Amino acid sequence: MAALGCSRLRWALLGQRMAGCGLCPPGARAKAALPTAVPTADDPGAGPGQPRLQSWEQLAGPGPLQFFFHLFVRGYVLHLHKLQTLYKAKYGPMWISHLGPQLHVNLASAPLVEQVMRQESKYPVRNDMDLWKAHRDLHGLAYGPFTINGHGWYQLRQALNQRILKPTEAALYTEALNEVIDDFLVRLKQVRADSASGDQVSDVAHQLYDFALEVICYILFEKRVGCLRHPIPPDTKAFIHSVQLMFQNSIYVTFLPKWTQSLLPFWGRYLEGWNNIFSFGKKLIDQKLQEIEAQPQTEGQTSGYLHFLLSNGLLSPHEALGSLPELLLAGVDTTSNTLTWALYHLSKDQEIQKTLHKEVVGVVPAGQVPRYTDFAHMPLLRAVIKETLRLYPVVPVNSRIAVEKEVKVGGFVFPKNTQFVFCHYVVSRDPSTYPDPESFQPQRWLRKGQAKDSAKTHHPFGSVPFGYGVRACMGRRIAELEMHLLLTRLIQKYQVVLAPETREVKDVARIVLVPNKKVGLRLLQR
Ligand code: HEM
């Protein structure tokens, strides 16, 4: 299980991303350094009295061999976010790369990201997700929210958005979340008791992974799958293994040519991983259908997410099977890693932790369970999560393909089908938006009067960890609630101290930013 924390979603997405960042078609190599080409980063260009829009061909960028050298010889393959910092220093906030006919425009400043996001079409396209689609096509499965595009995506989101998108809808799951948190606290107590010092958790990310998986299964399927039990039930263990299998093999199937699929074991393992993930989902969906048949929902009764979608005819079982596994995958690494980073920083800054503890117990005294409405009175707690996501945007690199029309950005014009790559990690550590950007300062998110050094207003696109617009994260409100509820309970109960052997932890970009080693914490009972 511990090793699981280092694979999953990020590998597949890494594959998708890297597939688009390499080879340049002949004659389309970068030509000029950006500083002379872009009038100003904030300037969309070509307005009245402004300089004429320039062609993207004027933009600079790394050549294919150089990119390959950086990734595989210099070892940036797990540090793509750092490579982008390097490229920004060299080429400025906008540079290009290519794969065959696909033009990639990398954007590394908040105003440039804003310009593209604000020109988004009705049906935004993130990327093509070919590898994921290949599995669905092979088995006649429906596409889910990550894999589907166009009008079909829009219709699917119309259905899936219900009962999850709004904060008040997410709040309906508070009781379920608190139930899992109760069990998680029992598990932590046991883990601490089993440690040599009697208070240590040696791999926090691993514990939080189990917690997040239990949470998301309970919310989606109203089913406890036993991630926090000992031993974990075989079905759930097999599911966890399958996620690992699928993601680990994604990296190989992305880079190896198609003709190797029948010769080498990776493609078969990749498909096997997906098949088991879908079998797990199918079993839960079938159980839910039987429950609905046996006991239809009565009026006024609050049901779980899947129950609601199926019993209201918003999704057919076939559509549910296409979507739910994708939601499951999206809901685990994201929250578990964010919580890990938040606890790591709180353990390193005891002053902030002390202030946070004061805020938390002032609203929810020790022994009491927080409710959704409590967080309106906990600005520092919310700021801790915001600051964590600024430093470690779970998706450090995201993208949009302009499928409908040409797009004007930073004084340049880009043809239809250009892929824009948002370098969120670089953007959210930009010193011009966030002074002293490498340091953990939740206070920078507090409004005037809430902190001594009141922060100036940040650029609205400086940190957008949940994305933007109609294609933004569906699970944002659930994720925030889950993280707020758990952090409150932990801070109420424990003083969090870094385990001596952990020392400095660095981030590794396996698409999701994960710690480069186990994060050990001592949880001292208050
Ligand atoms: C800390 C927690 C999380 C973060 C930071 C996060 C971040 C993101 C980001 C950046 C995107 C891409 C948005 C875009 O392209 O504009 C996304 C998409 C998505 N997220 Fe999350 N996410 C989190 C938790 C969750 C959870 C708990 C769920 C499930 C309930 C979830 C479900 C999804 C889905 C289904 C999409 C695809 C939406 C679409 O393409 O229409 N996420 N998330």
From TrEMBL:
Belongs to the cytochrome P450 family. It holds the Pfam family p450. This is Sterol 26-hydroxylase, mitochondrial. It comes from Erinaceus europaeus. GO terms for biological process: C21-steroid hormone biosynthetic process; cellular response to peptide hormone stimulus; cholesterol metabolic process; cortisol metabolic process; glucocorticoid biosynthetic process; vitamin D metabolic process. Keywords: Heme, Iron, Membrane, Metal-binding, Monooxygenase, Oxidoreductase, Transit peptide. It is found in: Mitochondrion inner membrane. One of its GO terms (molecular function) is monooxygenase activity.
